[in-house]
Amino acid sequence: MKLSLAYSTCPNDTFIFYAIANRKIDLEGLEFDIEMHDIDVLNRNAAASGRKPDVTKISSNAYGIGIWKDYVTLDAGAALGRNNGPMLVARKCFDISDMDSKRILIPGVNTTANLLFSVFFPNAKDKTPMLFSDIEGNVINGSYDCGLLIHEGRFTYKSKGLEKIVDFGEMWEQNMHKPIPLGTIIASRSLGRDVAMKVSRIIRRSIEYAFAHPQEALPYIREHARELSDEVTQSHIKLYVNDFSVDLGPEGRDAISFLYKKAMEVGFIKELPQDIFL
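Request: output the structure for the sequence above.
Response:
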């Protein structure tokens, strides 16, 4: 059985899927056609009508905006953790009480980053979506007042001369006292429970293989890592691939469900997702 599998080029995803992409583990009779995209493209592809990927990475927030009706959340492959959320940066520090007047770059309307920003700054409306990798440059050149960084941005902004305004990982942890759900792996409900369970097992096996053979996975990660240094790449993986990636468990599932309650409160979603876990 051949399935389409979509994920991002970010080091946490290429680390997670290295063993699958290179057939290093038992795939239980499955084959995967792999495609890689920016997270905003992954979100839009999963929401589009017509052909959709069978298995895909998704922003936790985007999943709650209707996509849950077509997909189920897998227990393996998620990006959850503590103090590891997106960061708002600017050329010069400013008081967050002035946020409502700022021109803000976001890495996609349906990203979890935008949801987190909206939870804490609901009246800041001057937001422009942009490819996540272009945000730093457009803040540096003054085109926008500040930008919401995801992925490796939290490791590189200081070297670019930018200042941290808000770390949403810290803010979420301090206010919600729960892990922060950033992204998950989802499988089409049309595959059925047995196949979805098989995919989840394979992803877990792939993560465990990468943890056991980190040096072996590096060339594949470097190939897609946008010329990041090995130090940044390793920091990225260490932060975003953790026990929740291996298995969401009760705490991870609770954190995701809680996120959707907050999304309802700020008007991002109109109904709470139902039956979202295997």
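The chain has twelve helices and eleven strands.
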